[in-house]
Amino acid sequence: MRRIVLFCCVLLIVSCKSKKPAVVYKKPATEITNITLLKLTDAEIVKKKRADDLGTRLLETCNVSRFRGFSSNEATDKVRQNATKEKISNVCQKINQRNGRFRGIDIVEITYNKKTDEYLFRYSIDYEKKLYKRELFVTINAENKVSAISTKEVPAKPL
User: Fold this and answer.
1) How far apart are alpha carbons 9 and 37 in whole angstroms?
2) How do residues 83-103 score in pLDDT, each as one tens digit?
3) Alpha-carbon distance 88 to 57, whole Å?
């Protein structure tokens, strides 16, 4: 009887043992220094103009329901394959219902990745309805082609 009580006490103590703390992964210093935040005037004018033009053209598609595809000089093959009329029209329907008509874009920041030699342009998108905020991300590679383009809704900041 005494052994059973002692065994139950040991079992209770072992089962109440706390979990090990989670290990937090920290990026090495080399990964952090590869990405540089640039001033809005420091980016190459050609790359900035390409990002502005193609981003605006893509978003204006939602207003006119006619998409003029990207050429091989403007975008990589991967972007051209993913930017189909069907995908763009589906996204445009959702955006038009929530945000209204597209009015324009304003550049927010430019980051440069030294490792991949790519510029990431982040834009704030202006729509008729101000209920939901969206941003546009355009990545320009070393060949001055769009290697990625996407939009995402920015969650509202609590007061």
Assistant:
1) 59
2) 888 888 888 888 888 898 999
3) 12
Exposed, middle or buried by CB within 10 Å (0-12, 13-18, 19+), for 36? exposed
Distance from the Cα of residue 17 to its chain's centroid: 41
pLDDT on residue 131: 84
Q: Which of 150, 155, 58 is nearest to 102 (CA)?
A: 58
What average pLDDT score do residues 50-64 get? 90
Direct distance between the N- and C-terminal alpha carbons of the chain, in angstroms, rounded to an integer: 62
Cα torsion through 87, 83, 62, 100, rounded to 10 = 70
Spatial separation of the C-alpha atoms in residues 146 and 53, rounded to whole Å: 11
pLDDT tens-digit readout, 127-146: 998 888 999 999 999 999 99
Number of residues in the chain: 159
Residue with tokens 């440069």: 112
pLDDT band at 62 (very low <50, low <70, confident <90, very high): confident
Burial (CB count <10 Å: 0-12, 13-18, 19+), residue 133? middle
